Amino acid sequence: MLTEEELIKTIADKTKTPAEDVLARVNEKEIELSGMVSRMGAAYIVGKELGVNLAKPVNKDLKINSIVPNMQKVNFIGKIVNISPVKEFDTSDGKGKVLNIILGDETGTIRISLWNEKTEVSERINEGDILEVIGGYTKRDYRGSTEVRLSNYGNLRIVEDVEIEVKESNIEYSKNSGYKDMLLDSVTEDEFVRLKAYLVRIFERKIVQNICPVCKSKLTNTTCEKHGTVNPEKFLVLSGIIDDGYGNINAVFFRDHAESVLKMTAEQVEKEIETKGEKHFFDSLDILGDYLRIKGVVRMNKVTNSLELICHDVKPINTLSEINSILNKLNSKQDASKPPIAPVKA
Q1: Which domains can be identified in the chain, with CATH numbers?
Q2: Fewer CB within a 10 Å sphere, N or C end of the chain?
Q3: Helix pair angle (39-49, 19-32), 10° resolution
Q4: How far apart are CA 189 and CA 300, in angstroms?
């Protein structure tokens, strides 16, 4: 491995830049990225900026496809393939912030969520950077996917002396393009699916949840184990059964997806239940038989020991428009000498 002096000399020689100028740039970069890179890392960044890539392939034991929920002391390296904008939200103590980053390696991609002061890293990182995650832990997010978070002593470090190749398919997959058109009689655990199905049953369970606006954990009344008394964030969870004519499966809709199915906001649902009672709310729902276009992931419910669909996206389908779309496709393939099939009217 090159020493600092050898690295600076190599950069200077390859770029025909005076060594003292390279050294000055390394000093500036180390200050700019204070806490995010080592001095050697700053030198590698300067070299890259000057067109000299001295990185070597990474060799770390823990790969992203091996990271599962409920792991502690997670350390791994990944390449940033997507950085979401920092989102702000209200808490009883003021404003909270969250930043989501998608990291990838040759085996897959994973999301890491950074909260509050840790979101400040967004000013010092870019897509394509290699990050080392130090002191992370994992949990299953509300969509059923594995999510990485940083412990109190966790940290991120930009790594410049390695390179990672992320498969294009993994990048597209991380941007929610990895869903397959499936029928419910053939889905299996952990598949990301896209399908059309009818909502045939709603389970009468607690639908409005209170969660912590900071860590998104469920609350006991208005108390979070980590953040004390908070101003709860309302969170809808709707579950039922969907059927596509080939099979059926339990389906769970969260947040805005539940609102889309119910055609009501969380606040409207809560008010309706407070005013008329939970039984009346479920009895008055007029959504059974709705035709839905759904994307989601199939998971095994450990309690019921059966598959269920965690919905990532849901949109209502106008049955009449769907029928006429099919008729239009049939007409386009039909012999021109035959009269077209007339569209269906309401």
Answers
A1: 4-54 (no CATH), 57-176 (2.40.50.140), 179-325 (2.40.50.140)
A2: C
A3: 120
A4: 6
Sequence-separated (6 or more) residues with CB below 8 Å from residue 99: 83, 84, 86, 87, 113, 114, 115, 118, 119, 121, 122
Dump the DSSP string for 243-261: E-SS-EEEEEEEHHHHHHH
CA dist 235 to 3, 56, 256, 267, 316, Å? 53, 45, 9, 9, 21
DSSP for residue 342: P
CA atoms within 13 A on the CB side of 299: 20
- pLDDT at residue 291 greater than cutoff 90: yes
Neighbours of 261 (CB within 10 A): 24
Placement of tokens 């709860």 in the chain? 232
What distance in Å separates the CA atoms of residue 186 and residue 298, rounded to the nearest whole number?
Answer: 11
DSSP string of 113-126, one letter each residue: EEEGGGGGGGGT--
* pLDDT beyond 70 at 333: no
15 or 169, which is more confident: 15
Q: Would you list the DSSP string of 290-341?
A: -EEEEEEEEEEETTTTEEEEEEEEEEE--HHHHHHHHHHHHHHHS-TTSPPP
253 contacts 314 by C-beta, under 8 angstroms: yes
pTM value surpassing 0.70? no
Region for residue 241 given its phi and psi (left: phi exceeds 0; alpha: psi -120 to 50; beta: otherwise):
beta
